[in-house]
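Exercise 7.
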Amino acid sequence: MPSTGITPTDECMAAYVGIKTKRTCRFIEMKISNDNTVIEVVRTGDRQLGWSEFLNELPKDACRYYLYDYQWVNDDGITKDKLLFVNWYDLAVANPSSGNRDACLANPSQAPVTMGLWNVFHGLSIALTQGS
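Solution. The predicted structure, written as tokens, is:
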């Protein structure tokens, strides 16, 4: 698989260590930089946000990557955590004919960028889309 050369910044790595080891935030929102050279942190989400609130905050006009700290209580009453890698894209934005600069880079068919992040942020990977 060809490589895009796009890698996470040191800030991404520090945020990853924070969410994984210290549970410092609920999620990390990341995007491809304007010069298409790195993946940078846009913001982090408050620990109090649940999955539904997270979904409501997804941008309607942009492609983004998220690392989300999902928590649930199992049948034995034990709280569990799992880091989810989320590739978010709006189908209208991710369409190369849209003219959006995120289109070809964030579209899941362009796996090298996603795989570049996935190799760093190990966890469960899911893709979420907003219909066109």
